[in-house]
């Protein structure tokens, strides 16, 4: 029986796309802190290299790979760089995404939607495709693919038509691939974050932030590290029997609706607040 710790991830090799900021950056740092060799893959060279520097300064091992996930040759090159250096690939995290087309269908620009499809869906597909090939070709063991989905891929949200439908497609791709590779020592799962406090919220009006926060049943935003530790668990040997699953890390947001009904008996822990 596997012990309940993260010793099993030490020495594994991971690629994380979109790792220069937000959830991807948190994943890269948490992975490296637990002994995983991390390839930080992103289009932002300055921020990506800073993540690598931070990891190395804290005793971890990391390299930076300029990676545009909408470019097939770029993905192939990144994976080759990693396997040439380390001789294996155990973990592929397809995290890079855009969320720019937040409008009703008739107001969305077709070119913007096409760009989102290339990054959010095709980027995930190509990351999976070439990571699996590398895992098989290098004889890597205990392999894991983790896709970053979204709570929006599970529930319908006004003005999220394009983003939500793409993430729903990522969910289905994850489930099908989980079945494809169940017999081949490769697990495939997705994390569906709720409202997570990343740099994207720096540009959102304060009123919209307050509304978003109220949608969370526990009344707060998630921290990126909460997604990172979910990913670390999925990358560990403790999760080898889990595949084809979508993990909602959203404080129950997708479990159902909340309302304003108060308890008849107040929570005694809150009486002194």
Number of domains: 1
Q: What structural category do the secondary elements indicate?
A: alpha/beta
Taken in chain order, the helices and strands follow as EHEHEHEHEHEHHE
Assigned CATH architecture: 3-Layer(aba) Sandwich
**CATH homologous superfamily - what is it?**
NAD(P)-binding Rossmann-like Domain
Overall shape: it is globular
Number of strands: 7
Tell me the strand order in the biggest sheet. Answer: 3-2-1-4-5-6-7
> Which stretches are low in confidence, meaning pLDDT under 50 for 5 or more residues running?
none
Name the average pLDDT. Answer: 92
CATH topology: Rossmann fold
Give me the number of helical elements: 7
CA-based gyration radius: 19 Å
Largest sheet: 7 strands, parallel
Task: Estimate what percentage of residues fall within beta strands.
Answer: 5-15%
Task: Describe, in plain words, how this protein is organized in 3D.
The chain is of the alpha/beta class and 273 residues long. The chain has 7 helices and 7 strands; from the N terminus they run βαβαβαβαβαβααβ. The protein has a 7-stranded parallel beta sheet with strand order 3-2-1-4-5-6-7, with helices on both faces. The mean pLDDT is 92.
Explain the layout of strands and helices.
Elements: E1 13-17, H1 22-33, E2 37-42, H2 45-57, E3 62-66, H3 72-86, E4 91-94, H4 110-137, E5 143-148, H5 161-180, E6 186-193, H6 206-215, H7 224-235, E7 246-249
